[in-house]
Records
---
Amino acid sequence: MKDMLLRYGRFITAYILISCTVWIVGLVIVPQLMMVDYSLWYRDETAVQKRLEKMNVLEDRLLMIDSDIAAEKYLDHPDQAKIDSLDAEYESLSAEISKMEASETSAVKKYGMKNYMTLFSNTLHRSVFLKSIWSSVVITLLAFAICYPVACYLAFSVKKQTAALLFLGLVIPYWVNEILRTFAWLIILSYKGVLNTLLMKAGFISQPIDFLNGNVGVLAGMAYAYVLFMVFPMYNTLSTLDKNQIEAARDLGASWIRIHRRIIIPYAKPGIAVGSIMTFMLAAGTYAVPAILGGTSGIWFTQIIYSWFFDGGNWNQGSAYAFILLLLCVVFIAFMMRLFRVKMEDMAK
Amino acid sequence: MGQVILDKVSMKFGDFTAVDNVSLEIESGEFFSFLGPSGCGKTTILRIISGFNRPTSGTVYISGSSMEGIGPNKRPTALIFQNLALFPLMSVADNIAFGLEVKNIGRNDRRKKADELLELIALTGYGDKNINELSGGQKQRVAIARALAVEPQVLLLDEPLSALDLKLRQHMRSELRDIQKKTGVTFIYITHDQGEAMTMSDRVAVMSAGKIEQTGTPEEIYNHPSTPFTASFVGENNLFRGRVISASDGMSVIDTPCGRFTGVNTDGHKQGDEAAIFIRPERMTVADSTEENGQNIFSSTVSRMEFEGSFVNLFLKKACADREISVNMMNSGETGRFRQGQQIRIAFSPEHSRVMKADGKIS
């Protein structure tokens, strides 16, 4: 603290501290806690029902008192004491009813794991959840298979200037909005789209293939959307590998496969881990790509979360699902870091 | 026949000729050095021998067979890189045994061989250490062990000592020499440091601009340089430029602005050629008043003196010569008699002076 004051002065120190606090508290801790809180309670419908029934009973009783008073007043010699006591009862009952009416619209919160259990009891949701995870893993592997050769080529086989040009080529499509890029894939992959037309013209197929109502569209679209997040971290680590090590291994008789297995991949581990984590999280958390390219069967877990929030109006359920997805991503990160024996500080590089 | 033969090897990168028609034979078990300034093509030659570069023309033979079309992983050579290129993610033993792992030799045998080599390089018990735990000199020795593990016929070393500090470098010289003697492997050593080349090598090839200037034992190179480049690159040399006025009997006489000098005709030049006469600073003496017969004599002015303890360097005004003339004398206890500005006479003998054709620039 004293060190910081000395180095940055009062104003910058205050700025750093305040912005960090706002970030951590306002944008991380509080929303997460709210989400967890939301996910842990649900509206107790039976309690609401009971409340309604009780209100009905009270209202009936009120009507009875009303008629009793009227009947008493109708007598020649009304008993004033009886009327007074009925009046008092009437007053207290109507107060109770108006109190109940005031809280009628507010939900009865009941805490429990019910929202989480829904995922396990609802077979459709469960299968979509598992499919989303599995597909994200496949997309990550696919992105790795595409990007590893590219990153190796950029890091080892081309000059720095050429690499910069090629990177520009990789980045340019990303200047276009993700939704538009995904629509481009829709044009390519649709039933009467570019790819089918070309394949049919070339005579490879006689009937158009329905790419979109399966997983092909989603997988292709996502692999395309997220390859860069795999290429960059891998290229970054690979470009720092001393090329003499590759030559040394070659000189000692190693085949290319062994050089990749023993020298390049072990060295690239932090980059692979970072790239895989990014790709997996983006894939698991995407909404646009499956919404556009998924057709009717390519539903993604995020779409279910979305519909809980905005179609079903059940924020509690949506929060629980979102939290499960978050937990899953954290578990995936931990798993990848363990698998690649990468530490946080390696990844920060 | 030599173990490594370069037959008219040339290497061009675009317009630039890195290696220019080099032919050479290196004997089995020899410690052979390529000595030259940076950019002279010596590293390219090493990479050609190891197979990382394919020569534009010419052929390399190792142990009698042509290396054309044979990759670096299939050649009986092992290369030690300038920066060593040890594998930082493997242990010392795994580094050393990498070449054996490649040959699918079992773990126990690999470990045994690694331990043997660790003993050779005096690092017994270091096998499980991490590479980054070693000092510069230890890394150096591990790199040598890693290369020796594949039992190469030829070990190629690319300035491996350049990253070490002076003291360690001098120590490693004798160590390298010892390892070479013990193993009997042919060492081909690249360096720009003449001290290294001279102290370790059986033979040295002096290189300049892609060409081999001279090949010979360190003594031959130093005492009998055959080209102006060798004469001025290896060790200190004084030179006087002039024109040959007579050339006969292996000796020639040259007229220079400092006087008429006689020296050994090293390259068969003719009368009238532009030439230079080279003489080592330690071969020059201060002439007494008595005339010394048959000696080359000239007089000059002392410009400064350097006292180095066991010997003294005397620098003379360049006046008649191309550059400053230096005279190197043993400290006889009476060097104090020289003063700056003093006029002195210098003598040097013709048989230690070497006259060579010098029409171009001399480095």
---
Amino acid sequence: MTTVSRQCNQDRGSARATPPAVSGTTRRKRRGPSLTAHGEPMVWLIGGGLAICSCMILALLALVVFNGAATFWPRAIVELTIADGQVVMGPVARGEYFEAGAPAEADVVDDPASEAAPAPAAASPAPDDELVTEEHAEAGVLGLVRRDLIQVGNRELFGTPFQWVSRASVESERLPQWAIFVERRTWGPMVGTPAAFIIDGEEVASTPAEVWAMFEQHHPAVRQRHAQRRVLERVDSGGVNDREEAARLNLVQTRLRYGTDSDAYAAAMQELEEVRAWAQQRHAEIREQIDLLNDQNDRYRLVTDTSRVEAVEQESVAWTQATPTLQADLPTPGGDFARWRVVDGSLSIRIEAEPEAEDNGEATLILAAHDDGAGTLVQTAGSARLVSGVLDRRGNRVTLEVDADLPANLPVLASYDMQQQRELGLDQIVRAYPANQLTLTRKAGIYLDRWWEFLTERPREANTEGGVLPPIVGTVTMTLLMCFLVVPFGVLAALYLREYAKAGPIVSAVRIAVNNLAGVPSIVFGVFGLGFFCYIVGDFIDSGPTHAAPNYQWITALAALVLVTLVAAGATMLRLRATDDRQWSVRMLGYVTTGLWIVVAGVVLWLVIRNPFFGGFFPAQAAEGTPVFNKGGVLWASLTLALLTLPVVIVATEEALAAVPGSMREGSYACGASKWQTIRRIVLPRAMPGIMTGMILAMARGAGEVAPLMLVGAVTMAQELPVSGSAPFLHLDRSFMHLGFHIYDVGFQSPDSEGAKPMVYTTTLLLIGIIAMLNVSAFFLRTRLRRRFAEAQF
Amino acid sequence: MNAQITDGHATVSGKLDAIARGEAVDSATHPALADEPCVLDIERFNLWYAQVQALYDVTMRIARGKVTALIGPSGCGKSTLLRSVNRLNDLIDIATTTGQMYLSGDPIYHPAVDVIELRKRMGMVFQKSNPFPMSIYENVVYSLRIDGERKRSVLDAVCEKSLRAAALWDEVKDRLRESGLSLSGGQQQRLCIARAIAAEPEVLLMDEPCSALDPLATSKIEDLIQELKGDYSVLIVTHNMQQASRVSDYTAFMYLGRLIEYGPTVDMFTKPQLRETEDYITGRFG
């Protein structure tokens, strides 16, 4: 071996000196550095793994951050005219490319009418969406077609606030100068143009610019009055209600305890009467104030023109000369009147009818039929009778009986455009802006205003709009409460495990159990929380023990408890006196003491749960079927999550305790400190950064947990927050809203999932932001504390 | 190896062999020690870590108000003996002992002894400085704090006195509120000494207090030990022969858990009774 290496060295030496011919041979001998020896492939493998992981995480974060951050940015309103004459107006929510010719979508193939239809513009009837037809027509040419989702708004008029428009079918596109986007308190956003501004029933402005100026002038005051009204309703009126409810519950409680014949009942009844009278008066006062505000607000009304040409309903209708009937699925006629028009035929029917015309009712319909091709009017007036169906906004099938002179078997393409003006009280408007005239600053202002609303308001419209203040408050309250519950228990458990317990099978078993606890599916904790906290403990708190012990038995047990406690205390004193742990008798005394205390604990527990003298804290509510703690609530949710996050705290604390150098403990002992003094003064402060880390990890884990909360107190809509300005300020019994559950509810349980999408993204962004903030603060806290304990280097 | 040494040392040279064979040997204690008043009396002290015996029949008397150095090769039981004095070895479950020690006449190893009270009568300085994660001030008055002393004036007085005694006062008097860990290594060690003497201990135990320090800091600590002498009785473990000769009045040489020779430092370093001691001191073995 040594000779070989020496040989190599010689070669290497000669290689430098000799001509290339020789060096060629030597180069072969000393092979270049081996790839595996350098570990280069492994570096690539490891680096690649890291890159993939970070890419996935970053992509997820980027998706959420981008969508969440972009949601509130005001977008321009486009007006698209589609080939068949339909006009769609609204901001583009999103776009996508799709394969137009995909057979999966061609549910119209079976329809014989579609094969018969010759012209591409007329195309075949598609029951759900006419635009699909267009896309089919383009499919052969383009392959991929872009389509945009237009937020057309006006849900009460159009039914669906979103509409897909295929780019291939768009004939023209423009940005109407005076298109305004109106966010309303109900019915979602409205898209239209300002038509008039009404004060006290009089039209004071009629051109868009004037109307808009009036709106901007009056809206802030109206909005402020609305906020005042909300305060009156919530705080003042709520306070009165609370007092009334308290008096009523007091009456129920008195009845339960003393019966209806007692003096106490009469007194309570009288008190309730007084409170009721007072409440009535107070309510009247508040009502008066609210009415005043409402009256002031009702003076101002904005009229918006929301006319548009509605989706064309294609129906090949068989008309009979005798009783010409037109049968069609009306999309959404509504508003003041709707006009039907035959696009590719010769008939235009103008229907003037109340949208809520009754079933089979008589409604006067005026027909205006004209020949589209030549433009000559065939028939200007006539009458039709609504035969069946309801002309309502749901667009039921409607059969019209037309007494006009119509050609038989006329193929009809019917469309209607809705020319209507909506009058809207300014009170109903949260925010409105002319989307196509905004400067960047204005846009930024609206953007920030929307974020502010999002963070400080309550949700409206089944959580799909408005703010998320209740979920934020609920999440924060629950998480903090959980922290207060889990940290003491976790730290105590870890202290015992690490500092006091002697290593052995029991400690190992406990440790394994704790670690396993971290792996239990969170829903199991939810089930446990519901079964134990809500049903058992909650029932006990509300209405006392279900199976109370007989009085004599309980009192006997109490006496026994006193006796056992005295004995246990005596044994403990003896045990503390004994200093030599090695003696057999001392050890036995120790076991006996422990056993006695366990017995004491058991008896105390028995005494509590079988106490015949305890009737619960809220018997009245329980009797009425409106339990206080015998249901999900923020306290039970916090306790459940505390159980869930206990392992995190215990493991982190144990590690932190183990990291405290032994020299510090020895130094403390050498100073004459006892074990507890050493732990309290040296070990715990030193381990504090680690404990903090565990706490914040637990907070992050708890704040992001949803599944167990669905069972123990999180609700989709909570009228009241778990914290309030009225005593007791923290309402442990109240159900609460939670950001994670909010995401689930808005994203997957709301009727308008498309409209709720922005809320899902923003709420997710918020939740991620909160958790990231917790983690970052943990990081800084840890570095700060670490620096305090860092050893100086010299 | 040492068998063929001159007559005067013949009995002695057999000692290491005897130890190697596991036989009991007597230690050579100089008669000068008998005259000294004794603060700590160790009598036939044995210590086992589980089955392994670490100290064999150690019997020695520590002079009051003097500095006593423990020297010997690594693993000879110096630190173990030191930690046995304030019963820090109690923290090790597997350690068992026989024999007795007396602190000013009070037994140390007795079931009735309150270990905490006992430790308060001794101060200890460790090999590696271990200031607590708290301010300099709190570090110094720690032993008073755990006694429940709350009077500001008392604490202040003790703090200043201890820091002055530890020759640290001038360096830290303006930053008593800063973390004890912000000091340099030598200052930290002096802080630990201040902490150890704050409770007025009868014995100051030092476990290689200078082994992690540079020469300058070492000389400061050594000067400090010299100054503490008289007021405090110091028992110091050291690996450094020069240090032992510089700071101590008495020196004990230990080997493999046994006390080999114990006497006044001057005698030990100039005319030791045993050949082994001379060999060790001059660096011929160990």
---
Amino acid sequence: MIAFVLTRLMQSAVVVLAMSIIVFVGVYAIGNPIDVLIDPGANQAQRQALIERYGLDQPLWRQYFGFLANVAKGDLGTSMVYNVSVTQLVFSRLPATLELVLVSITIATVLGVPLGIWAGYRPDSLSGRAIMALSILGFSVPTFWIGMLLIMTFAVNLGWLPSGGRGPVGSIFGIPTSLATPQGWAHVILPAVNLSLFKMGLMIRLTRAGMVEAMRADYVKFARAQGLREREVVFGHVLRNISIPLVTVFGLELGSTIAFAVVTESVFNWPGVGKLIIDSILQLDRPVMVSYLVMVVILFVMINLVVDLVYARLDPRVRLKGGE
Amino acid sequence: MTFQSLRAGVAALAILAGSAMHVSAQDLTLGLRAGPDSIDPHWSTLGSQAEALRHVFDTLVGVDENLQLQPALAESWTPLDANTWEFKIRKGVKFHDGSELTANDVKFSIERIPVVTGPMSMTIYTKSVDSVEVVDDYTLKITTKGTAPSLPNDFIRLFVVPASIGMDVRNEEFNSGKVAIGTGPYRFVSWEPKGDLVLERFDDHWGEKPHWARVVRKEIPDDAARVAALKSGQVDMINYVPASDYLTMKNDASLDTVVADSVYILNVAPVVKDVLPQKVKVDGKEIDANPLQDIRVRKALDLAINRQVLVDVVLEGLGTPATQLMPKGFFGYSDKLGERPYDLAQAKALLAEAGYPNGFEIDFTCTNNRVPGDSVVCEALAQMWSRAGLKVNAQALNGTVYFPAAAREEFSLAMSAWGTLTGEASYTYGSLVHSKNADLGLGAFNRTGYSNAEFDKLFQEARNNLNDDERRALYEEASFISMEDRALIPTVILQTVWASKKGALTFTPRVDQETRAYEIKPAN
């Protein structure tokens, strides 16, 4: 078990290293960040002075090793645009994204899994088909479009909810979050619903597919023959058996939603990390790009680790071995 | 699926939240496309940075809505001799911490800039300063490197901070509010990057008292989200209304719109070097000659542009035809330059005369979404030139890709926007049109290789002349020569749109597009 976790952490270190090289080479290929940032009123001498000050006149390998040396000292760098440490910058925006993702993934799971179970349990019923039809809408209609529709309906026409932004921040168990205030909930509900639709569609379809297959399996017949009630058959046996793909997808979606909630964040003007990273890419703010992506890689590795641990818990046949 | 239950839940939430959503008549909430990158006023020359920090910090010299100079923290300024300026500082100006402004604070601010400024370096505004001397508390003597007639124009972005904060504070101390101390009409309350800037009125400000006691400047970069925030009443006013929404909003009885010219002009830059970076093709074969070196070809490009169509059709009315690199009324604007006619027949004739009766094939590169309308104007120009017989491969690139490539001079024919932010000719013509000369710091953004001895001579004569009238005449002549020579081909002046609730607010739009809370007043 410990060996397993250690191997995973070492793998992630390799991925982080590879990723940082890709970002450095990528930015280098696009061009000099100074040419994106510089003021049109600057003259040649000022441009040259800036390039030297940020070490951009150095060969790429030297810039990269300079970065690694700083990372070894625990310093991920300073944003060229904001001149504050990138860790501070990213962590100042991460809570907003986390609470949005948390609410949306909860909506997706709490609604999606039961709906999928029903659609799989009664695949030929009218309600089952209706659920499937709606789930197709969930992941075929573009997110920004649904977002705009939600804003037009609930914010502009009905005036029930704010059109965007994050509400006032309160505190739950010492963690600053807008989920602690009623106004905060009013702000989070539309973007969270918007963000959850795709995942909900996915959850419904996955659960249904698993259900349809499992309901034909022998163990269901035996369970029924044993005289168990339908509720016990579905939730006690079938659900447990179809959980593995659900947990996998849940984990992947959790990670990708945290990292790339950017469409919803822009439409609803949510002050999360997604907007920050897009702006940083557009301004070639390399320190922010590198450290953000490093954090995303670590996040994915951690989530996958947890997913694997959950597998073992759900299915006793799964063994955790180091290095495999 | 869950729509009905969702509605019910949402309604319940709204009732919960509604009680807390109370807005006072003294509050103003603005929805803006961009905000500051820092609260340190000496960090960056970014336009949205200056716009926001102007509420907290005053500049030494002010500008009116047409960017012409007016007194601010300096009451007056006079050149003592060719290399010295004297600035008289306003008396009785209070900082937000209660201390009084003196010439020493101004000196400190000038000297702080090179120490703390970032990649958008503010040293462009202090580059001609050699030394600063405090004569007495209210008099400042500035010695310049060479003659610097435009020093007061440079100082329209010189924000003054108190010397008592010391040289060691950086962006973090400003962002936290610890040293965000200015003399401006508003005090700093809070800010986070890409988030809201919250301000409260400073009652001891030396100028006119602003109406709003509390101002929230919300940063909403997404166009649709900004429009939705106004329509849902979350904000009182928005800037940069997208062209696609403008007509609907103009006809919306519940909204007011205000349209005004900006300083930004879309200029086509034809490269006149001996060898083009992207070679042109005649009858499908690359040729070594550069047709753009021929003034007849550049004139033909100009004549084939139908500027009225660009404005009326392509930009949905949100523009003005441009004849030179600056809007009317700026220092050095030439009245001699008439309207640019649209004449396709003459354009074809000039191309034939220059030896290209069947035209040629050329790459044309523009910015995409850097300013409103750049990519659509780009496509439209390609079509207009194709009617004159050219084959134009238009490509609109994101600024992140465009600017580094432009700096490497990889384009033969390009278009981007340029704004004369100082309101006078030396800023624009010195950077874009003057021959490249690193020693003089001129031609830094001259990517066409254009070099005209007559223009350079006039420009340098003007640059060293302290007499305003003579200098103006020299710049007008220099503008005239370079524009007649088609050094660059200006197309349209872009316009900006603000929108607010019907009959709620009044304000005078500014050519620099700034949205200043203290210049916005309730309508009645």
